[in-house]
Design brief:
- With about 100 residues, this protein is mainly α.
- The protein has one domain.
- It is built from six helices and no strands.
- The model has no long low-confidence stretch (mean pLDDT about 80).
Length: about 100
């Protein structure tokens, strides 16, 4: 929630991204799918069943409210993860 606000995302898109409803729904559907398994063989089997549950949950996904403002979010994320490059002068001062 705080990260979304810090990135400058507002309006309907911010409201959509600051709730956990969609994730909780996906987890619930994945639990329902994996709950049918009685004997787990190994971790690989668990991963396959979790993936199957997520694919099942994908059917109920809808369009993100505020999706028209996604470009602003993408730009903000790019600015956030792009490393700043120090000029030689700034680097020399920081190293001293």
């Amino acid at each position: 929630m705080f990260t979304v606000r810090r990135l400058g995302v507002g309006g309907t898109l911010a409201g959509t991204l600051t709730t956990t409803n969609c994730i909780e729904s996906m987890i619930s559907i994945a639990k329902r799918t994996t709950g049918r398994v009685t004997k787990w063989k190994d971790g690989s089997m668990k991963k396959r069943w979790i993936a199957a549950g997520m694919l099942e949950a994908e059917r109920s996904f809808r369009r993100v409210r505020g999706h028209k403002h996604m470009a602003k979010l993408v730009d903000a994320l790019r600015r956030e993860v792009t490393p700043t490059v120090d000029t030689t002068e700034e680097y020399d001062q920081a190293a001293a």
